[in-house]
Amino acid sequence: MQILYFSLTGTTKKAANKISDLTGATLTEIEVKRVYPKDDLSKMKDVALEEQKDKISPEIVSNIDVKKDDLIFIGCPVWNQQLPMVISEIFDKVNFEGKKIIGFFTSGSTKYTEIESDFKRVVKSGQILDGFMANDNEEILNHLKKLELIK
Ligand SMILES: Cc1cc2nc3c(=O)[nH]c(=O)nc-3n(C[C@H](O)[C@H](O)[C@H](O)COP(=O)(O)O)c2cc1C
């Protein structure tokens, strides 16, 4: 099992660490070359929206290798009611054929049902299992119990 995650301000990173603690999955941070204005939320929202409108992803600098894993968690924040463009870039670059994929997301208020269709749209290979919001430890624990993935 492996956890791929993208996190701008640390919330998704915390969730990814929790999932790793509970399941034993290894962690890979998806890092990008672009330096985002993460301390200026309104500017950051504009930058994200511009990427989403133009369908341009930042360049990924992490080495992502999922060959040895059958089950992959993919996590990121919700940006402007959508996924950050880097998640769609992952599916353009990495082949997930034969893998099970579980999305987990963090947000201020957006719910899983509001982001699920966007995730289904960007996943180009692999089999999607039930994903979840990972804003707090209880949500994470409950979902992993349901999936029977607690180590
Ligand atoms: C550019 C941007 C857009 C955002 N858009 C939304 C949104 O549409 N809905 C929402 O609930 N939260 C939104 N948020 C809040 C983040 O999803 C939330 O703070 C998330 O947990 C941040 O994760 P991170 O610390 O791993 O980057 C947005 C934050 C940023 C920076």
Automatic annotation (TrEMBL):
It holds the Pfam family Flavodoxin_4. Residues 1-151 form the Flavodoxin-like domain. One of its GO terms (molecular function) is oxidoreductase activity, acting on NAD(P)H. Coiled coil: none annotated. InterPro entries: Flavodoxin/NO_synth (IPR008254), Flavodoxin_CS (IPR001226), Flavoprotein-like_sf (IPR029039). SUPFAM superfamilies: Flavoproteins. This is Flavodoxin family protein.
